[in-house]
Amino acid sequence: MTIIKKTIVLGILFLFASGMCWAQKIEFKKVSAQTFQSLILEDEDNLLIDVSSKSEFDKARIKGAICAETSQKLFSILDTIPENLPVLIYCTSGKRSQRACWLIKEKYPHQVYTLKGGLNVWEKKGFKVESSADN
User: What is the pTM of this model?
Assistant: First the structure.
């Protein structure tokens, strides 16, 4: 292998390795419905955020959740809370909340938990939801 090829390979390996280290710093925990429920009940000093659409939020949500259907809304909420406040985040299926976790961890130091499988799994496990019609 020529020196140029070796240099390119080493450069790519270095970039890959440093990217892996960066990715490891951005962490959040994907938790089961049971653990998510425990986190809600154990500590009233947490922030429960639903990143579903407003119509999905109105239809079904976990009691006490705040709707943050856009990243702008999510960031405006997070800008106003203490750094030591845990953030519990979910959506209908778990996909949007996982993306939201990556956005949060890039910008904020909060401990973040996301509900594996979202509200769909939450309801299947028998945990209660509320809706705007309930109020």
Answer: 0.78
